[in-house]
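Repro:
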Amino acid sequence: MKYYILAGEASGDLHGSNLIKELFKQDTSAQIRCWGGDLMQQAGAELVSHYKERSFMGFAEIIKNLSSILEFIKLCKEDIQDYKPDALIFIDNSGFNLRIAKWAKPAGFNTFYYISPQVWASRPGRVETIKKTIDHMYVVLPFVKPFYEKYNYDVSYVGHPLIDAIHNHPAIDSAVFKRENQLSEKPIIALLPGSRKQEITKMLSGMLSIVDDFPDYQFVIAGAPSQDYSFYKQFIQNENIKFISNKTYDLLKNATAALVTSGTATLETALFKVPEVVCYKGSWASYQIAKRIITLKYISLVNLIMDEEVVTELIQENFTTKNIKKELTKILETNYRKQLLEKYDSLEKKLGGIGASEKTAGLIIKDLKAIL
């Protein structure tokens, strides 16, 4: 079979790479072309466009770069038309992917969606677009299947692929990790400020504002694969701040606590059993728009899955130096940490263990054969 996979950010690249590996295992003569990143390319897919080229975040940023986005959509459609895949597989990234899906289904392509757009969080009207344009949907969060059932749309719950990714990540000795990355012996507080420039700019200065209040710890910035050190350098004004690029999982394996920008990283941190404070601050305009269309009680996946405030969320005006210091102090305290780690164990059980990538690949092949 010929597969064409579309992912638009670092997390999509990770999950896409594991899906690609499973597709090759289960369909040994598979041909796979993709829009994704380095990991998908390393897994054996032919990379057409890197997600770094399309990394636009926030309403203002999208409007500013609209002509570039429209050009990418045009190029993508042309490439799909030329390649003529048996299966067109979308991974998250709804802004781009649903536009392609609206064209692809009427054009006669078989469409599959892995990791649902967050229609359960905002603009549920998009469900009707999904029902019309997507043949099969594979969801990774347990509450999403009953959400779609309310709209008479049957989807497959496959478990969360992060458990696969974390389970398969090789262990690294703490002393070796610190030595290889020129870190001191102090316990590590990991800083995960996001992956896009405007996001990092908003978050990192706030996160670093409390460094002097915790002299017994070293603060380590998790550099995103999409950004160079030269960009982060402007924020590092203290010798107790270190930087490690593209080794977030190794960093989390060795961290005592973390400050994490909302997104997939909040769940990754919890699955590595690292107590965390979730942080988010957007531009005033983007935040005003977002809070009018997002209908959720929480912004972190940890709290959404557990349906309770397991980890503290410091959002917008609550993202202050005073509050960061208070909440970080709390998660470094022994009894609070113990309670939080027990909640993390319950979270992992809810997500259903390893095998999401294998299961999804199998279902795609099975569902595709049924169509063909």
